[in-house]
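Lab manual, section 2.4: Encoding a predicted structure.

Procedure: take the sequence of the chain (321 residues), apply the prediction step described in section 2.3, and record the output as structure tokens. A sample record is shown.
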Amino acid sequence: MRTDARGPSPVLVPALAITVMVVALLQTVVVPVLADIGRALHASPAAVGWTVTANLLAAAVLTPLLGRLGDVYGRRPVLLAILVVVAAGSLLAAVTTSLPLLIVARVLQGAAFGLFPLAIAVLRDALPPQRSASVLAASSVYLLPGALSGVLTAPIGGRLVHAYGGRSTLIFASLLGTAGCTLMAVLHTASWHIIVGGLLVNSAVSLGYAAMPALIVAEVRSDQTGIANGVNSIARSLGSSLASALVITLLSSHLLPIGLPPESSYVAAFVIGAVGLAFSALIVAIGLPRPATRRDTRDPVEAEQEQATALAAEWATVTGR
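Recorded output:
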């Protein structure tokens, strides 16, 4: 994937962005439907939780190994091999009716985590040497705090949902995300502006994902929980895909002579994010009635499923959603 003297291909960044988006989708695709998986496969919540745990364990083992293989054998063949393995795991997950085989499929999908570091390595090969160091340093400086904030915020989200309900938690999450996007749209001349904004947005996403299962349980009848979770999963996946495509289009449609998007493209993306999150807070505040009293009517199994879903929410923040 090295480029010639004419510079990197104009489709390089969009292609890598779409490739890395696979990581985000595979991280979160099972989280909203853990309860449905348990019912379909007649498995306990603890057993179904291994569909998340096995994926993360596989990622922890495979990511550095795949990065090393990319260094030795080349980025392109390793990237293609990862995509083949992930496709095989996704096919197995789609057709299996066995929990052990589903866990095996999630292990195979864990190879997708190796796409991100390999994509960074491809960018290093494609960019001029004077820009490579700054890009790699920025990746660590700006992405690591957001990832850590998601890990730390998810348990807090579960406690907020328990104390104040899903409605209030989701409104707070939307407003927090609005503040983060607004900060980055207005202030982006210093590193701390982007870091703080990213912390706010990632924390908002984690809190929002923790709130959704509680809202679903509270707002639909028990016999509609499955379809409601399915709609939630589809909406999240569709929204993530559309938002990623929109941002990619904004950043790649007009490039400066040096091959980078202009500042206005980033500002537009941040403004769209702020407006969307503010609108989300408004919809929840107006569309969902405030509960007069809050009673926990869940049985122990439902409570355990909701807690597992909330604690898994932090792994949804890789795209900055």
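Check your result against the sample. The mean pLDDT is 76.
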